[in-house]
Specification:
The strands form three sheets. A six-stranded mixed sheet has the order 1-10-9-4-5-6. Strands 2-3 form a two-stranded antiparallel ribbon. The radius of gyration is 24 Å and the shape is globular. The protein is α+β, with helices and mostly antiparallel strands and about 200 residues long. It is about 40% helix and about 25% strand. The N terminus is likely disordered. The protein contains five helices and ten strands; from the N terminus they run H-E-E-E-E-H-E-H-E-H-E-E-E-E-H.
Length: about 200
Amino acid sequence: MTLARRSFSRTLLATAVAISFGSSLSACKSAPPPFKTIDITDAEYGKGFSLSDPDGKTRTLADFKGRLVMVFFGFTQCPDVCPTALTRAIEVRRQLGKDADKLQVVFITVDPERDTAELLKGYTVAFDPSFLALRGDEAQTRATARDFKVFFSKVPTGSSYTMDHTALSYVFDTAGKLRLAVRHNQTADDIAHDLKILLDAA
């Protein structure tokens, strides 16, 4: 073999090794989790909450460290969106099986005028005794909703009113970091899939 051919062969070998090494490095890099809900890991909003539970105790996100927390804003007289979201959360817990208790579902009312502590407690317990309802005064409610980029407004209906509100649910991981936004039309299967990823990564 001539000197030129030996040099060319060494170049080909070096190139092959470099490509192989590069591929190995790429394989070692962890791919982003294949979430089915909306990944908002880098969100600068939704840092937490400080509201009262039905027993009058102030609850914050830090109370649930070590558990996943799914937050939904709604109101007890909601005819469809809120009951659907909470019913879906029941199915999510069922799909988590032995890890069901690692998920805390939090329902924050956007209608503190009518949603008393007693009413809220009865409402969430009717879905699942583990679900927690939270409320604040009007100023606290607006501040918390604003922090989560949640819209709500009172809509007159004859002599009464209903509430128009954002229908997203939010999920915090076990370290208390906001990770996911869940659309109203997403299934319990989608959510359980993503929560299992977060639990496996914890």
